[in-house]
Amino acid sequence: MTGPRIVIIGGGILGCTVAARLLECEPRARLSLVDQGLIGGGASMYSAGVHFPVGRSERVRRLSGASADYYQTLHARHPQLPMHGFDFFVAAGAADAEQVRARCAGLRPLSAEERRQVMPELPYGQEVWRMPDCHAMDVQGLAQWYARRLRERAELLEGVGVEAIREHADGVSVLLSSGHSLAADAVVLCPGPWANEGCWRELTATLDIRVKKVVALHLQRPPEHGHALFFPVEDAFLAPLPQRGHWLFSYTCQQWDVTPDRCRQARVEAREIDEAREALRGIAPALAQQLGSGRVFCDAYSPSREPLVQFVGRHQRILFAGAGNGSGYRLAPGIAAEALALLNHALTTG
């Protein structure tokens, strides 16, 4: 007895995670994963890959917690994965302390020794906690690891565009740039920041997704030096990337309605370095002048700032999963679980 025929469009970290989790739940599934480039070569290539158990809403906190459990289990089974654990030190003003404790899971008070070490790096008057069990992952490396394993059980089509998606009451036809077509029981659309591009833009138009530029700056100091710092109110963090040998400072860039193809060609500009230095100067002033290079790309953001997992076709055959709001890697396993639950329900009751 054969399983459902599923096509996943988008070979970033979310598409790969959906594919992996689908085959875990339904080993009989006949799966094709299609990407216009190379697996992990889009937004996943630029991802910081930093995971921490934080969320502005109960749903995002649940997704983050479920994803943390998934990654810890995955790493325990496959210790060769490029995942490096560390603790964040979380800082906020006294007026925001209650809000921060609600958003961040597992906060612990500092020991006297930790306070002595960390406080000199922060402005006066900050409340600080330790948030254990965080990590940094080489996201592109993880996507490519998934791909190597998926090739044993699924069809992976790289460098192939999707020209048309035609939904019918009993299935979906996917026309490819190669001239071939795929017949599927369902399609899972995981386009990352290409959510409003391509032949599916009419399907996603009602989701009101916007694409925002994402800028992160590199700090040239050894990963083992210093402390990882997270500032929830400012939505900024400073984290080590051991796999690359430097630190990364992520802050909120407010340049909206960009296109991923244009961002792919973008370079860090002087004004962005100035913005990042100004943001870091307000929370860790001693480090601000060390910022001078980094990475630029973009991500899809939903109106609610929560990931979107919903059907966009007329017959519940095309499922959109994405709009990670800059947290695609951090929430990918949880988003994938929600997507597969919806997909399973539609296929078994439809």
Sum up the overall morphology in one term. globular
Please name the fourth-level CATH homologous superfamily of the largest domain: FAD/NAD(P)-binding domain
The top-level CATH class of the largest domain is Alpha Beta
Instruction: Give the biggest sheet.
Output: 9 strands, mixed
Helix-strand makeup class: alpha/beta
Oligomer: single chain
Uncertain regions spanning at least 5 consecutive residues: none
Mean pLDDT: 94
* CATH fold name of the largest domain: FAD/NAD(P)-binding domain
Tally of separate domains: 2
- What CATH architecture of the largest domain do you see? 3-Layer(bba) Sandwich
What Rg do the Cα atoms give?
21 Å
- Helix-residue proportion: 25-40%
Sketch the topology as an H/E string, one letter per element. Answer: EHEEHEHEHEHEEEEEHEEEEHHEEEH
Strand count: 18
Features:
alpha/beta, FAD/NAD(P)-binding domain, D-Amino Acid Oxidase, Chain A, domain 2, 9 helices, 29% helix
Tell me what the structure shows.
The chain is 29% helix and 31% strand. It is α/β, with parallel strands linked by helices and 350 residues long. It is built from 9 helices and 18 strands. The strands form 3 sheets. Strands 3, 4, 5, 6, 12, 13, 14, 15 and 16 form a 9-stranded mixed sheet that branches. A 6-stranded mixed sheet has the order 7-2-1-11-18-17, with helices on one face. A 3-stranded antiparallel sheet has the order 8-9-10, with no helix packed on it. The model has no long low-confidence stretch (mean pLDDT 94). It folds into 2 domains: 199 residues, FAD/NAD(P)-binding domain (3-Layer(bba) Sandwich), CATH 3.50.50.60; 141 residues, D-Amino Acid Oxidase, subunit A, domain 2 (D-Amino Acid Oxidase, Chain A, domain 2, 2-Layer Sandwich). The two termini are 19 Å apart.
